[in-house]
Q: What sequence folds into this?
């Protein structure tokens, strides 16, 4: 989440004070992401340094009463950011994926039980998000979007676990052989590079 | 008060080498007003659990009690009456009768139970109205969208004074917006005191439930803890 661009977005509506920016940021994101005032001011200082915002030149008004405006360069930066696809193309090194891969090889560990522990935890989290959706998100579009994003993300993880569970079950007695196939060449170097796997 | 109780329920198909244990030693208790989701992969016994809970099939061993009455002690006629009056079923593919209008589909269980056609129609229209489908009353199923058809099926499952709603993948054939609309209706029915068991492999759907039971190879392997309040969620998120 880019605080920098969120502040630029708020300033694109008109000049605002620091404290006001913090309140509006929290309101617009369904109050799911708390932001402290220090973060707001540090970010504003950097934005000003980079010429993306301007502050009141009157040096008497410092602190909470100091107003900020977006510059032309700031508007261009914001428009560019909104149109740039977020960095979600290369899969992160997901700790859960690592855990399942490791659990497959550790003696005495039932990998399907490891899967179930995580599945239950994820569904419990989803129940909590769904309670918010049921009670608070109805009249608040920002919050509804944030809650849905979280639910879809967690749902994807549950689906992956379900799929992994099925694959492991189908492998059955053949599991050890499938874990170390004789002709293992691994992924191609180009794929290795893209998913960030280091060569041994 | 428990609406559905299952005690040590097992179901075995076939004999000898061909024996298949579809369900093993299931204990499940669903109180009035509670929504329980049953999650599990295909072949885990979810649908068998639902047909046994709905008295459509007998367990090989164990006991099913609905509204305080043990199914094992009931005659076929008693069970049929129980299904007409107390239990509502919702299926993935809606199962509406194509030759009947929405209102006629909803009124059908009441008519089958001996209510006059006129009275049944009034009750059917009321059930449709409650789900926001009053305007669709005289439409035939093929004149309605999938989401509307499933809502009609839910009205049919709730019409009269049903206390137990059994749903098998109710949003399986719907997109996420319609799926959510359907689960919200089931959830709202539970708030009015209906007990519901929803079988699904969809975690988003299951997360509406008060409790989630996980089924694997015919056994209950796990259950969720009672849900925490949303506050705990909002506090743990920190911005970078």
A:
């Amino acid at each position: 989440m880019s605080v920098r661009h969120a502040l630029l977005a708020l300033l694109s509506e008109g000049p605002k004070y620091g404290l006001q920016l913090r309140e509006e940021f929290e309101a617009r994101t369904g109050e799911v992401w708390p932001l402290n005032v220090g973060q707001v001011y540090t970010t504003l200082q950097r934005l000003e340094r980079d010429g993306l915002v301007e502050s009141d030149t009157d040096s008497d008004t410092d602190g909470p009463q100091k107003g900020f405006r977006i510059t032309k360069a700031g508007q261009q930066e914001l428009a560019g950011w909104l149109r740039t696809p977020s960095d979600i193309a290369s899969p992160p090194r997901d700790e859960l994926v690592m855990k399942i891969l490791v659990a497959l090889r550790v003696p005495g560990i039932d990998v399907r039980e490891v899967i179930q522990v995580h599945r239950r935890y994820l569904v419990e989290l989803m129940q909590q998000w769904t309670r918010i959706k049921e009670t608070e998100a109805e009249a608040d579009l920002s919050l509804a979007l944030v809650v849905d994003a979280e639910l879809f993300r967690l749902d994807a993880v549950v689906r992956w676990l379900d799929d992994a569970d099925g694959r492991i079950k189908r492998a059955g007695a053949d599991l050890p052989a499938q874990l170390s196939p004789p002709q293992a060449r691994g992924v191609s170097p180009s794929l290795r590079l893209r998913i960030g796997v280091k060569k041994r | 008060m428990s609406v559905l109780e299952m005690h040590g329920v097992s179901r075995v198909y076939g004999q000898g080498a061909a024996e298949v244990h579809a369900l093993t030693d299931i204990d499940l208790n669903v109180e009035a007003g509670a929504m329980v989701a049953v999650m599990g992969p295909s072949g885990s016994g979810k649908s068998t659990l639902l047909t046994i809970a709905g008295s459509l099939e007998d367990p090989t061993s164990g006991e099913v009690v609905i509204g305080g009455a043990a199914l094992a002690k009931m005659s076929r006629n008693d069970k049929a009456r129980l299904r007409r009056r107390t239990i509502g079923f919702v299926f993935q593919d809606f199962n509406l009768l194509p030759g009947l209008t929405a209102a006629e589909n909803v009124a059908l269980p009441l008519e089958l139970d001996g209510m006059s056609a006129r009275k049944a129609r009034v009750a059917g229209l009321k059930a449709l109205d409650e789900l926001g489908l009053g305007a669709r009353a005289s439409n035939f199923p093929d004149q309605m969208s999938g989401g509307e058809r499933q809502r009609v099926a839910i009205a049919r499952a709730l019409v009269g004074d049903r206390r137990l709603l059994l749903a098998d993948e109710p949003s399986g054939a719907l997109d996420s917006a319609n799926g959510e609309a359907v689960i919200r209706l089931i959830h709202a029915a539970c708030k009015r005191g209906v007990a519901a068991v929803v079988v699904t492999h969809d975690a988003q759907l299951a997360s509406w439930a008060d409790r989630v039971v996980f089924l694997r190879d015919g056994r209950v392997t796990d259950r969720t803890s009672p849900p925490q309040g949303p506050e705990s969620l909002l506090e743990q998120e920190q911005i970078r």
